[in-house]
Amino acid sequence: MLKIKRKVCFDVKSTIINVLLEVVSPNRCQRCGLQGESLCGRCKKYLLGTNPGYVISGIDGFSRVIVGGVKEGLLSRLLKQYKYQGRRDLARALAWKAWEIAQNEIWETGEVGEVVIVPLPTIRRHIRERGFDHMLMLARELCRMGENLKLEPILERLNKTVQVGKSAKVRCEQAKQAYGVKKEVKLREDVYYVLFDDVWTTGSSMRAAAEVMRNAGACKISALVLMSNDYIES
Known about the structure:
Elements: H1 2-24, H2 41-50, E1 54-59, E2 62-67, H3 73-84, H4 91-107, E3 115-119, H5 124-130, H6 134-144, E4 149-151, E5 155-157, H7 168-176, E6 179-181, E7 192-200, H8 204-215, E8 220-228
Parallel strand pairs: 2-8, 3-4, 3-7, 7-8
Antiparallel strand pairs: 1-2, 5-6
């Protein structure tokens, strides 16, 4: 009887722990619900097939603009849950989507030197509201996927302007004054920099940040974004 009671107690305790873990750290596929990871292998194949991403060469002064996909369907839903619902566990799945197309494009540039991932900095207000820096976390996950990738958050935000809901003209003017290179940082001509952001809307922020980096000494810069609002025209 004692063994049976102990067994029942153990089972109840385990169930409670598992339920709490499900709440605190959900570990189910966000498309099919399969337990194990935030996006299972089958649904990763589905996402690659339905939203494969694309690359544009020689646009806006970038060596390449590498886009993980278009902002729609499953990919868009994952980003919203990650940024606005605190689903930090989705960072790896989102970084994987960007890396699936970036891994070949980065090395196909012919650059064999150091590759540095530069996340576009987030304004402090958004970091406080969300409880974490979503771009820095994505960049860290991305760098874990490539052996020769190095993370360097060399940019800083110089103002607190928010671009959401603003026109393309206003976005462009705001972006020109938004970024700077940190004082202690020295950019090198021989390093291949990959400027990384989550969404390309008008491209104003990415172009402005790249211009700041070029003025500070960078020569080889590509843009990598998780998704674009629409297909970017070359």
